[in-house]
């Protein structure tokens, strides 16, 4: 029986050789079309054939058989509509195109922001606080400490202190330490290089102080360093919520510097009388903020003693000031005048007009200016 069937099929094949029979116009069925569109666009939620009629099955029971995949004018229109629907997800880029699962600009922007948040969530604080959104009050936005998106300095300094010996001896690399502690390798390297630079005399006043504390800190003493940096962050920078850059009236960058320099500053120092009767010594000093001292000058105005329900006592009027410090009174008076602390003595002004001049202006003006 098997031999007969085989012989019959061979004879039929020879008889029909070269005749392929009726060839139908083929198309993708609904599932094939959906999967192809998703693979090409990278958007797994697209379903362009949801309005298509259900594919019929041929006699063999398959929905991708050519005889079962008809193409009517109505179905052609649905394919065109499906193509337009897919095109709505197209996003033009400076260097090409991409597809998004959203069709509006707002939703696409939110999608990108979500991806940015997910990327940074492995390296920064992600706990929302008051001030993290555009509509929060300005006073809340001014707080930059541990804000959503700020770098958790505690873990970076803790890792740097714990691995300081190994890194100094080159037993470990910065990238290896960052990976071991789950930190950003790029930021950890920048922080390490900054901390280990020599404190230059003309360098940053803030960074030099941080470097000095870093060299003295022990493994478990990261908190004082971080608190000091937070204080300077609060004073020097204003952080804004991610995603609001470029809005009308909005910020131009995520971190915006704040000027803290002032032309004048009033301050007072509380004195506590020493128990041993010794003198209280106060030194007034000033330095630059790390930007050089070209054109800088400082003027101490009206230093004085206040309190005790008594009138203010200016420094220049302290009895016996020159004698107490072994200074020449005339030299001290001239020095106080130079510092603009007020004249040490009354000034007798001479050479001014003392009489009214009723002479008419005219020829010989210089001879009739008046009596001095």
Please describe the topology of this protein.
Layout: H1 2-15, H2 30-41, H3 73-87, E1 90-93, E2 96-99, H4 105-120, H5 138-141, H6 153-162, H7 164-168, H8 174-181, H9 185-195, H10 205-216, H11 222-236, E3 237-239, E4 255-257, E5 304-307, E6 310-314, H12 321-324, H13 329-338
Antiparallel strand pairs: 1-2, 3-4, 5-6
Helix pairs in contact: 6-11, 8-9, 10-11
Q: How large, in whole angstroms, is the Cα Rg? A: 42 Å
Strand order, main sheet: write it out.
1-2
Query: Beta-strand level of the residues, as a percent range?
Result: 5-15%
Structural class, by secondary structure, is mainly alpha
Q: End-to-end distance, in Å?
A: 150 Å
Shape: elongated
Biggest sheet statistics:
2 strands, antiparallel
Order of helices and strands: HHHEEHHHHHHHHEEEEHH
**Which regions have little confidence, pLDDT < 50, spanning 5+ residues?**
361-372
**Number of helical segments?**
13
Estimated helix fraction: 25-40%
Total beta strands: 6
Roughly what is the average pLDDT, rounded to an integer? 78
């Amino acid at each position: 029986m098997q031999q007969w069937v085989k012989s019959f099929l061979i004879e039929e094949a020879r008889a029909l050789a070269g005749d392929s029979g009726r060839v139908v116009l083929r198309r993708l069925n609904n599932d094939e079309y959906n999967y192809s569109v998703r693979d090409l666009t990278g958007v797994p939620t697209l379903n362009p054939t949801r309005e298509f009629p259900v594919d019929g099955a041929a006699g063999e029971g398959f929905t991708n058989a050519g005889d079962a995949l008809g193409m009517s004018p109505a179905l052609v229109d649905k394919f065109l509509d499906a193509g337009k629907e897919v095109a709505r997800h197209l996003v033009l880029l400076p260097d090409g195109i991409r597809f998004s699962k959203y069709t509006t600009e707002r939703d696409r922007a939110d999608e990108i922001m979500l991806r940015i948040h997910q990327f940074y969530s492995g390296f920064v604080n992600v706990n929302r606080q008051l001030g993290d959104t555009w509509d929060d009050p300005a006073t809340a936005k001014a707080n930059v400490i541990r804000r959503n998106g700020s770098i958790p300095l505690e873990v970076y300094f803790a890792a740097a202190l714990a691995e300081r010996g190994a890194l100094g001896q080159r037993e470990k690399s910065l990238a290896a330490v960052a990976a071991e502690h789950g930190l950003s390798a790029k930021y950890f390297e920048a922080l390490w290089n900054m901390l280990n630079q020599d404190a230059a005399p003309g360098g940053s006043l803030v960074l030099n102080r941080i470097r000095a504390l870093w060299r003295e800190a022990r493994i478990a003493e990261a908190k004082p360093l971080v608190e000091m940096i937070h204080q300077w962050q609060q004073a020097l920078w204003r952080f804004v919520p991610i995603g609001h850059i470029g809005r009308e009236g909005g910020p131009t960058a995520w971190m915006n510097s704040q000027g803290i320099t002032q032309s004048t500053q009033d301050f007072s120092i509380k004195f506590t009388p020493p128990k041993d009767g010794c003198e209280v010594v106060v030194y007034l000093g000033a330095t630059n903020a790390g930007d050089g001292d070209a054109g800088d000058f400082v003027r101490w105005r009206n230093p004085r003693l206040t309190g005790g329900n008594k009138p203010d006592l200016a420094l220049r009027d302290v009895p016996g000031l020159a004698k107490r410090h072994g200074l020449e009174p005339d030299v001290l008076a001239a020095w106080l005048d130079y510092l603009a602390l007020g004249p040490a003595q009354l000034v007798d002004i001479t050479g001014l007009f003392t009489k009214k001049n009723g002479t008419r202006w005219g020829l010989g003006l210089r001879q009739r200016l008046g009596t001095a």
